Amino acid sequence: xxxxxxxxxxxxxxxxxxxxxxxxxxxxxxxxxxxxxxxxxxxxxxxxxxxxxxxxxxxxxxxxxxxxxxxxxxxxxxxxxxxxxxxxxxxxxxxxxxxxxxxxxxxxxxxxxxxxxxxxxxxxxxxxxxxxx
Amino acid sequence: xxxxxxxxxxxxxxxxxxxxxxxxxxxxxxxxxxxxxxxxxxxxxxxxxxxxxxxxxxxxxxxxxxxxxxxxxxxxxxxxxxxxxxxxxxxxxxxxxxxxxxxxxxxxxxxxxxxxxxxxxxxxxxxxxxxxx
DNA sequence: ACTATATTTCTAGTTATATCGAAATAATAG
DNA sequence: CTATTATTTCGATATAACTAGAAATATAGT
Lengths: 133, 133
Fold this sequence. Notes:
The structure is a homodimer. Chain A is mainly alpha-helical.
């Protein structure tokens, strides 16, 4: 309803959702947290370990984690006394996709170099493919 | 020197530079401005036109443009009385690449779905393709 | 030099964010 | 039930961001 030309697909992120996600990452401690959690996928990391790992007081870290969580970039699940946080990689992909969708509109040549940079480390499904191409 | 494991390459963006870039985009007016400028590549758009186009006072817009500019996301060039702003797509790519580098480290399967989503609209050199698949 | 136009800088009020001590909540063990 | 551990919420302060009116700067035309 809100100025909608886009067909809503769940993996796409809309403007209203992207700003909190970018804001959540636009803070050095939170960016470090998110990167740490990405490196610890898929096991995740308890709140206390995150705080200790980055040398930030637990309550401060808790507030950062809640920002990341509200933005959808991390998820939290309780295990006993601990609350284990995990990076939400689908959300990361949605953010990236949102940013690239704009520059791709009608001009693929803009994103092509990016895909080329990315392909060496991230070529799709190297094992189940019959062959490449 | 600052905790450096990465080999510095110019197209890669470091932590210190990415936070201002994300912060610049983490504001709805500025995100709109950037998207507008991407759509107007490569001609660019004068500051006044940007302000008028988004119905924001010129001085307010000027301050937003300077944030985007400091972050390296836009460039400015004077033409007569006007100052024409352009989106810096290399910077956008560097931001995206930074975010993806982390999730690709050692696990290509994370970014592969993203590349697959991107490929239909942005496959490298689309004209030289024989046909679509 | 004067006027009109385009944009920025100055300034100030308002709002939001970051940080962290202290208190509160939640789960486990004895 | 009490003690211990893990985490969050509350509250207060400090810093930064957003907004926009008013003044300043820069360019072009007359």
